[in-house]
Design goal:
CATH topology of chain B: MetI-like fold
Oligomer: heterodimer
Order of helices and strands of chain B: HHHHHHHHHHHHHHH
Number of strands of chain B: 0
Number of helices of chain A: 13
Number of domains of chain A: 1
Radius of gyration of chain A: 23 Å
Number of helices of chain B: 15
Number of domains of chain B: 1
Shape of chain B: globular
CATH superfamily of chain B: MetI-like
Number of strands of chain A: 0
CATH superfamily of chain A: MetI-like
CATH topology of chain A: MetI-like fold
Largest sheet of chain A: none
Strand content of chain A: under 5%
Shape of chain A: globular
CATH architecture of chain A: Orthogonal Bundle
Distance between the termini of chain B: 26 Å
Largest sheet of chain B: none
Helix content of chain A: over 70%
Strand content of chain B: under 5%
Amino acid sequence: MRRHRALWNAVAAAVMVVVAFPVYWMFVTSFRPNSQIRSAPRFLPFGTLENYRAVFERDHFWSSFANSLQVTLLTVVFALFTAFLAALAVARFRFRGRVAFLVLVLLVQMVPAEALMISVVKVLEGWDLRNSIAGLTITYVAFVLPFTVWTLRGFVGGVPRELEEAAMVDGSSRLRAFFTVTLPLVAPGLVATGIFAFIQAWNEFTFALVIMDRPEKETLPVWLQAFNFGARGTDWGGVMAGSTLITVPVIVFFLFVHRRVAAGLTAGAVKG
Amino acid sequence: MTAVLSEEGAGASPAPSGGRRSGSDRPARLPRPGRAGLLPYALLVPALVALGVGLGYPLVRLGVMSTQEFGLPQQFGAPAPFVGGENFRSIFGDPYFWDVLRRSLVFCAVSVVLTLVLGTLLALLLARLGTVMRTGLSVALLLAWATPALTATIVWQWIFDARYGVVNWLLTRLGGDFQGHSWLSQPLSFFFVGTLVVVWMGVPFVAFTLYAGMTQIPGEVMEAAAIDGAGGWARFRDVTWPALKPIFVVLAALSTLWDLRVFTQIYVLQQAGGITRETNTLGVYAYRTSAGNDFGRGAAVALVMVGITLLATLFHLRQMFSQEEV
């Protein structure tokens, strides 16, 4: 048994190294000057911030950062608001079309965004919304919504409806009870779901690639790919610094919500 | 975006299965119908409008575009004439389209099988580890899972870089002649790298979900099987596998959907390697056709993609609904 444990530990260590290596390598490379990158690889972090400085000074980095931040935050706000209302409807009421709506949400979640790249651009062009934050936000909200609705539905279900009813006995309207009683109680769910929406909008590449095709309108992922393509293997330090800047916030958020969502959902299951 | 959305989204919370647990016993205590009136419908309006504007209408437009012909006059603003099923006839009659379709399906099948097999093995490994090693491995898997598709692809591109990549350096040191070897200029090694990226990103979700499923199997059952003389394989086949099969089917369906429409990974590697004709998959092909202003045929290819996805989805939904009451 002990021999087995040692064997499994060795296997796990090997897997760990292989799985984590790309992220580690991105990080290490981002701190090495390009002159050294072109010699033999070194595996320990080596300190220079030169690559990061180059990224900050690079054309359109800050405008892309601002665009990404705006689109992402707007997406989170609109998606959470719409999804909270929809989640209330499906979690608190039995009505004709409820199951149809849930099936629609599931179906819509499966529609491949990649297939809609072309027609979304045509539609937004027709509304004069190509290369605009508003146009990209509309698209993102639609694609984030199914997941947001589905998750918030679980969180709303975890709040005992008796609490709302108590408020209603005290003379509150049902809609008011939703906002004064339920909303604060699903705050953890809103945070977790919001962070997920944040991650998705922040990472999104394909729609941004076709919708925001002017350099000053790029979002960070589109900016990074343009940098990567333009550098053609000559500035790996800079490209990795850019990649790290985009990835780190996502990883931090992800580690955070990963547990949070799991906890929220199990709590809902126990209480519901 | 749905690719990203579902890979991380549906993944981390198991979107569908997450809602399922808390949802199952709710309907019994819902208010009497009729009392609610129009309120639930009013609450759904914003969501329906957002979905209709951002997704429904573009989908309709895609359908319309697939029946139109776009040529030089349309680039100067002339309305596109309707040509019925001409675009579909054209792509179905084009051997290259069938090449692309076959390539997409093979790529998807290989990636899904690898993702599921490796995910299952890792889940079994997680179950056999002590707390420290399990946490370590989980963190490594979370890192791979959390990395955005774009940066992940760029990092792998760097790892396999012809001149300074660490893989060529390592293989050369191990005695091979890989100095300056370009992995992305040959279709086969191109897809080797592509599959690696997709599988690396996809395995953690499968491993975590299956591991969570395994922890639900009561320890006594395993012990009883062991006492009855069942070896490791017999225990997996007769206890673990039947318990995990429903989860496994859902994971297989989801992985198929995601790997079928993969765009970012292929597109970025193509930009890096320079070959496109031999490496186009459906999504990238639709995009490139449209980028050449042939929107009609591009839309037709995209619709074929939607169709295939829909078939896979219906299968997936049937599985889900047979397992739970929504």
